[in-house]
Design a protein that fits this description.
single chain; about 400 residues; 27 strands; globular; eight-stranded mixed beta sheet; six-stranded antiparallel beta sheet; alpha+beta
Length: about 400
Amino acid sequence: MTAIALLNSENDPHVVADTLLSAAGSDPNEDKSIWLPALGSIHSEWENNDGKWHIPRLGRKTFAVPVSSGFLAFAGQCSSAFNFWDELSTHFYSRQAYDPNYSITKDIVESILSSNKNAYRFSLLGMVRNNHGKFLPLIHRPDAVIETKSYGVCYIAGSGSDLLKKIILERDKTIDNHNRSTKISHTEDLAEYISAEMLYRESDLKNGLKKGTPLDCYCGGFYEWYGIKDKGINALQPRIDMSVSLTDDGIVITRLYFSEQYMFPPSSNSSVYSFKYPISVVNLISDFEYIDYTTLMNEKISLSFSEVYGTYIDSTFSGYEGNPEFIPRLSGQIRGELAEGMFSSLVNVKRVRLFVNCGENTFCKGFVNPAIADCYVSIQYTDGKFTVNIDDEIKNYILGKVFSL
């Protein structure tokens, strides 16, 4: 089960996909818990009207077609999707052995799909080049097709389709009210908004217990997004997600995440030909951070703490390649050499999604590529401490909401 989307397929294609994997029955692991970025460590087993189910791990549900020929996301049965990808990879390996310039095309993908006996068990959404090198939509078993005025034709698949459909239509309806940055396209803004909005929704303590919440729809974890351009794939950009609640005498920072993506070339012993694009999601605060209004108005926002937790999200297919060193649930405290490797050098983040809760209403604002400052947020680890500095532009937006109440 999952939630994936292909946005603006004809003009500015972007792919969005969640990372939550679900399976029927009880969790076979002795430790029946799993770390989700928005909720921390939770029970891995759930039960509803359909019976007992569990969350085995988080896994990326997107993959790049060899030699920059396309990009796809899948929904549905993971093993069947992997077997299809394995078949496609075998085809590529065998042809490339005698034709180094060989590449996969949309016709080839569709041909392999049509001959796959389990193709009905999964959906595919994305873009693949044709024989002339032009990207075309590849649509296999979508659950919804919607036409929008600002995001073109969008395709959605997976158990969380209704959640994505509602976000897309609401965003399309109110697009004139958004303070849209001119530095990114409408569609890229939507893709990143979906990623941030779904992460924000998942922090609800009723998630999974209330009908229509992400876990109730068997989707979540973290939403990756990609822009598909003629020159190649624009991968997920490093981003800070910050959630703030306003009180009578100050603000409370309830969530502060840092997400980024890595890229590794295909390994020589991999059964499938694909670059690896794992994602790390770091929870920078483990407790609520309170700042009174006097301090907020007169000082810069600078946070320091010693405990930081994170999770590493690899490809779903990594769990099917028979690698004995594969760790399905890779999460925990970030410290020591790992912390130094990630943050000993100053990390500057140029994208922020800020959620400000004012009681009855929650406002979301996206900040992209600051014009004046070097970054919106900087992170560094020194002497066993993590320090996070937040630019005044973020602070001033929060103060603007305070003064408007």
